[in-house]
Amino acid sequence: PAGPQAEPPGLGPIDLGAQSGRWAAFQERHRLSCEEAARLLLDAYEYRGLVKHTGGCHCGAVRFEVWASADLHVFNCNCSICTKKQNRHFIVPASRFKLLKGADNLTTYTFNTHRAQHTFCKTCGVQSFYTPRSNPDGYGIAPHCLDDGTVQTIITEDINGKEWEKAVNEHKTIRGMSKP
User: Fold this and answer.
1) Are residues 39 and 118 in the same domain?
2) Number of domains observed in the structure of the chain
3) Pseudo-torsion of CA 32, 35, 36, 39, nearest 10°?
């Protein structure tokens, strides 16, 4: 039945009960604001089993962070653009990617269906991530643009991008890789 909708709870103080002391000590020990501590806790819970990788372009104008496994499943595509750029990438949901800086320094190239958004740095020309045609709701991340120290292993899978529709339709998991 139609009627007044319940208002979402306000953003006022939360009663932590017996955990109040632990929360305050945690914030103080790690020198975190309440919001920073909450973000850390939520990230640890929501992204358990994943690590936070950071990376960017060559000149440093574009920087990002991405939550993904330490063991990466990387696609090596032989389509026309991936071959010329030597584009190898792993796919993540958009919710696990955050552009830290450089939005104004990115430019985009598209061709053919214009679904893939090939973004790259205007200054150095490096494509450290892009929006793949197979997963327009996610990002393809170039593992070679990640900072050292968080990747354990890389498994590479060849994809026949020369026959893109057939390859993607036959692949069991590629379209779902951008789902949280």
Assistant:
1) no
2) 2
3) 150
Sign of CA dihedral 172, 157, 65, 151: positive
Report the C-alpha gap between 100 and 71 in whole angstroms.
23
Together in a domain, 31 and 98: no
Q: What pLDDT was estimated at residue 7?
A: 43
The answer to whether 160 and 168 are in contact (CB under 8 A) is no
The strand pair at 97-101 and 106-109 is best described as unpaired
7 inside domain: no
In terms of Cβ atoms closer than 10 Å to its own Cβ (0-12, 13-18, 19+), residue 178 is buried
Is-above-0.70 flag for pTM?
Answer: yes
Residue pLDDT, tens place only, 18-44: 888 888 898 999 898 888 888 778 777
Bridge partners (DSSP) of residue 159 are 77
pLDDT tens-digit series, residues 86-140: 989 999 999 999 999 999 999 999 998 888 899 999 999 999 999 999 899 999 9
